[in-house]
């Protein structure tokens, strides 16, 4: 099957209208361009994200359905609550963003990861600029789980998560939801649904609904910055 896609201009950061994205493969919008901070942030602001394999050109996506969750609506399972009480883990925000990004890439089989070295370098640069944030789960001084993503106002765009031990990524996600809700965050974008996200309570909405919410939320500030700190769970909330 022949696919015709717009090629992004090297010198301009604009994107085609997301309504022009393909239905097969779902959401494929354009190729080319670069992974400069300005282009990536412009993509997120328009409901678009990069996703490609090592052998591919840079591909840009905006699927017809978006996997999202309100951080206020996340409900941890009884087993996860029990695990957190017993596991003696420490959870932090923005303490080891570079490590989290690298582990999200290296803990997956090479054929399954889209986090190429080019992507790693791009999101580390975004972290240095204050856009990319991470949640880290520690057992003593060992990083055993975490996640990272892009924060735009009251919207958090999750990119990836990893677990070296059981439930560590769920622990990171629970802490993200509670902390983000606590600072005034309203929506977490998980991009594309998978069985792990579905178990966490993530649901799909139409692209038009996501864009309507995203357009407002990205311009609404949270009541506190997403600064480096220790995160603790309040099980009563």
UniProtKB/TrEMBL annotation:
Query: Out of the domains of life, which is the source?
Result: Bacteria
- GO terms for molecular function, please? leucyl-tRNA--protein transferase activity
Task: Kindly name one Pfam family recorded for this protein.
Answer: Leu_Phe_trans
Please classify the protein's predominant subcellular localization into one broad category: cytoplasm
Kindly state which reaction or reactions the protein catalyses.
N-terminal L-lysyl-[protein] + L-leucyl-tRNA(Leu) = N-terminal L-leucyl-L-lysyl-[protein] + tRNA(Leu) + H(+); N-terminal L-arginyl-[protein] + L-leucyl-tRNA(Leu) = N-terminal L-leucyl-L-arginyl-[protein] + tRNA(Leu) + H(+); L-phenylalanyl-tRNA(Phe) + an N-terminal L-alpha-aminoacyl-[protein] = an N-terminal L-phenylalanyl-L-alpha-aminoacyl-[protein] + tRNA(Phe)
Enzyme Commission number: 2.3.2.6
UniProt-annotated location(s) = Cytoplasm
Which key words tag this protein in UniProt? Acyltransferase, Cytoplasm, Transferase
Top-level EC class:
transferase
Protein family per UniProt: Belongs to the L/F-transferase family.
Q: Which NCBIfam families match?
A: aat (TIGR00667)
Role noted for this protein = Functions in the N-end rule pathway of protein degradation where it conjugates Leu, Phe and, less efficiently, Met from aminoacyl-tRNAs to the N-termini of proteins containing an N-terminal arginine or lysine.
HAMAP family given for it?
A: Leu_Phe_trans
Q: What is this protein called?
A: Leucyl/phenylalanyl-tRNA--protein transferase
């Amino acid at each position: 099957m022949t696919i015709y896609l717009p090629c992004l201009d090297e010198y301009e950061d604009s994107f085609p209208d997301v309504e022009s994205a393909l239905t097969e493969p779902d959401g494929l919008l354009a190729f080319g361009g670069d992974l400069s901070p300005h282009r990536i942030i412009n993509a997120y602001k328009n409901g678009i994200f990069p996703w490609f394999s090592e052998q591919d050109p840079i591909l840009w996506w905006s699927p017809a359905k978006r996997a999202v969750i309100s951080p206020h609506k996340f409900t941890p399972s009884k087993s996860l609550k029990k695990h957190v009480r017993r596991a003696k883990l420490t959870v932090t925000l923005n303490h080891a963003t570079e490590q989290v990004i690298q582990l999200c890439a290296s803990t997956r089989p090479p054929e399954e990861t889209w986090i190429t070295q080019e992507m790693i370098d791009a999101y580390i640069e975004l972290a240095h600029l204050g856009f990319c944030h991470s949640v880290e789960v520690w057992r003593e001084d060992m990083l055993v789980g975490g996640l990272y993503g892009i924060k735009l106002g009251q919207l958090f765009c999750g990119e990836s998560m990893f677990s070296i031990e059981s439930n560590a990524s769920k622990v990171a996600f629970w802490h993200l939801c509670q902390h983000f809700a606590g600072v005034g965050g309203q929506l977490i974008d998980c991009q594309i649904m998978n069985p792990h996200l579905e178990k966490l309570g993530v649901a799909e909405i139409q692209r038009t609904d996501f864009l309507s919410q995203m357009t407002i939320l990205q311009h609404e500030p949270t009541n506190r910055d997403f600064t480096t700190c220790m995160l603790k769970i309040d099980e009563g909330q």
